[in-house]
Amino acid sequence: MSATTTLPELERTAPVRHRPALSYELFPARTDHSFERLRETITQLEATAPDHVSVTSRAGHGNLARVLELTEHVLAETSLRPLVHLTSIGSTRVQLTTIIHALLDRGVRGLLALRGDQPAGHRLDDDEIPFARPLIELIRQIERQRTAGLAGGRVSIGVAAYPHRHPESPTTSHDIEVLVAKERAGADFAITQVFFDPEDYCRLLGRTRSAGIRMPLVPGFVPATNPDRLARLAALSGVAPPRELLHELELAADASERRRIGVRFTVDLATRVLDAGAPGLHLFTFNQHTDALDVLDHLDLDRWSTTSQGDAR
User: Fold this and answer.
1) Would residue 235 count as lying in a domain?
2) Fewer CB within 10 Å of terminal CB in the chain, N or C?
3) d(C-alpha 165, C-alpha 176), whole Å
4) Is residue 10 domain-resident?
């Protein structure tokens, strides 16, 4: 067949995409009423054709029924691909094995392997997985057992990365050692925790490349429109937003002006990181589509071709 031969059937069914990867994070609904609102948010986000939506889970999977409810809705009622969070803290190896099999049975092919937040005073059970690396190994072990049923395919495994030092880590070098171990265990990509300075992402990228890490690092963004939410994130992550941004948000005349200020800041941050070679963006939506869509409306994602992160400054 000539190299110039066209394949009209494929041209009709597989539109060419040049833009960076796009994904959103969703929380399972807490009530039936909030699930109805979440369905509307999913519909709005689906229209932007994201590559996947991540589905969060509590440590110990105490909200597993709601996680499955959201996951099954995404699989059955939308064209979206779910990336389901797995947290090792609070669950035994046997419980995690059961959950992984249940997700694969439902058609899930993307998992985000996390240790999860460790409750104060928590003591590990004998069969509890203490951090993400052995969880990744468990997923890969189950994948090998089910290779035939997966049609020889692989599960895509994501992990977390930290532009700032992890709150429990002694050094940023230790963070990189952990990320190296995750990649060697079988992780395919990482999503970063929030940051507010593009240089934080670029420095992380430089450290990972120096360590030989080659998996994509997808930057995570929160639409910076809500000062109370930003304060809660700072308390949880130890990463404070710029004082100038908080000051502007506090002086805003109304919610519309706060949204304009926060969207402008987020768009500028995303633009600078994409210009530096980031492979895409992951938006933490807090189950609200308006701010996320405003950010996308002001970003021309098609202007960025998919570039190698090795070219990042």
Assistant:
1) yes
2) N
3) 10
4) no
Number of domains in the chain: 1
CA distance 73 to 70: 5
Token duo for residue 307: 């570039």
* Neighbour tally for 218: CB within 10 Å: 22
Confidence band, pLDDT 50/70/90 cuts, at residue 225: very high
pLDDT digits (tens, 9 = 90+) for 82-99: 999 999 988 899 999 999
Question: Distance between CA 240 and CA 194 in Å, rounded?
Answer: 10
Kindly report the number of other CB atoms within 10 A of residue 240's CB atom: 14
- Check 9, 25, 137, 177 and give the catalytic one: 25
309 is a domain residue? no
55 backbone dihedrals φ, ψ, rounded to 5°: -115, 115
Tell whether 265 is covered by a domain: yes
Question: Helix (H, G, I), strand (E, B), or coil: what is residue 313?
Answer: coil
**Starting from the edge strand earliest in sequence, which strands make up the sheet with 21-26, in order?**
217-218, 189-192, 156-161, 110-114, 82-87, 52-55, 21-26, 280-284, 220-221
Cα torsion 21, 310, 307, 273: sign: positive
* Spatial contact of 120 and 91, defined as CB atoms under 8 Å apart: no
CA distance 204 to 190: 12
Task: For 122-173, write each residue's pLDDT tens digit.
Answer: 566 667 888 899 999 999 999 999 999 888 778 999 999 999 998 888 999 9
Look up the CATH number of the domain holding residue 138: 3.20.20.220
* Domain range for 66: 18-299
Catalytic site residue 25? yes
What is the rounded distance in angstroms from the CA atom of residue 195 to the CA atom of residue 186?
Answer: 26
